[in-house]
Design goal:
10 helices, binds adenosine-5'-triphosphate, alpha/beta, globular, Rossmann fold, 4-stranded antiparallel β-sheet, binds magnesium ion
């Protein structure tokens, strides 16, 4: 990670629901412009961690420092946090009764004048960036899953968040749409933006990640630069997980091959 102050620092984040310990002592730093991919078995707490970052869930203890400011402090409003930290959900969550353009403009309209200036131009530029310039007046049910996913991404980007969270962005997509999404992640719209991506799609992870974080049982148990995570130098637990997730990928390369 670069020497500059992290955009996001999680410090000892814990969450228990009932008697179930869901997050335990999660600590993580995210550098400006970095893409961190979170991998881990089902139920390991990945979505819960993302929901805590966006204040959809309140962690019990720990700190979420965003540019040094603790988002867990009582006076910090969730609305304000969600303007800085955008989230794209697995099932898109588009408003079915609004066309694509109106879906993109809803948040700027409710956020007030400062966000509305140029919002229409921004929205149309983003639709062009995700390859959907001709779909502005379509309704979500008229679009494929991949197109809806790209609308959801454009809708989050229109608020110009400083950090984007993606929860399983490829899970509902066919291979062609996944390829289109990969291209989008490599495009000007998303390159250089700080982001966290949760995925079970290891091939996708290997193409977009700067760093891999591995969760298990609510804990962050391994962390590595992408080149190392997919090499023989990865931690034994991460290698076991990746080998299981990619049974046909063969042996790991040495890090110098990457
Ligand atoms: N509201 C809740 N009440 C009780 N338990 C919950 C709640 N939300 C999540 N959990 C539990 O917390 C654990 C972590 O769930 P989470 O959805 O974060 O896992 P995940 O890593 O995202 O899994 P997947 O890969 O299947 O999406 C699971 O055991 C889940 O059952
Ligand atoms: Mg999940």
């Amino acid at each position: 990670m670069s020497g500059s102050a992290p955009v996001l620092s999680l410090r000892g984040l814990c969450l228990t629901i009932g008697t179930h310990r869901i997050l335990h002592d999660c600590t993580l730093d995210l550098a400006e412009g970095e893409t961190v991919v979170i991998l881990g078995p089902s139920g390991s707490g990945k979505s819960t961690l993302m929901r805590c970052l966006n204040l959809l869930l309140r962690a019990d203890s720990g700190q979420i420092l965003f540019r040094g400011r603790d988002l867990m402090a009582r006076h910090v409003s969730a609305t304000e946090v969600r303007r800085m930290i955008g989230m794209v959900f697995q099932d898109y969550c588009l408003f079915e009764h609004l066309d694509v353009r109106a879906n993109l403009l809803l948040a700027p309209r409710t956020a007030g004048a400062g966000f509305l200036a140029d919002a229409d131009v921004r929205a149309m530029n983003l639709l062009a960036a995700v390859g959907l310039a001709d779909k502005a007046d379509r309704y979500p049910h008229e679009l494929s899953g991949g197109q809806q996913q790209r609308v959801a991404i454009a809708r989050a980007l229109v608020m110009q968040p400083e950090l984007m969270l993606f929860d399983e962005p490829t899970s509902a997509l066919d291979p062609e749409s996944i390829e289109a999404l990969q291209a989008l992640f490599r495009s000007d719209a998303l390159v250089g933006m700080t982001k966290i991506i949760v995925t079970h799609d290891i091939a996708f992870a290997s193409k977009v990640a700067d760093r891999i974080v591995f969760m298990e049982g609510g804990e962050i148990v391994a962390e590595a630069a992408a080149g190392q995570a997919f090499s023989v130098d990865a931690s034994p637990r991460l290698r076991r997980f990746l080998t299981h997730a990619m049974p046909h990928a063969g042996a790991f390369s040495s890090s110098t091959d990457l």
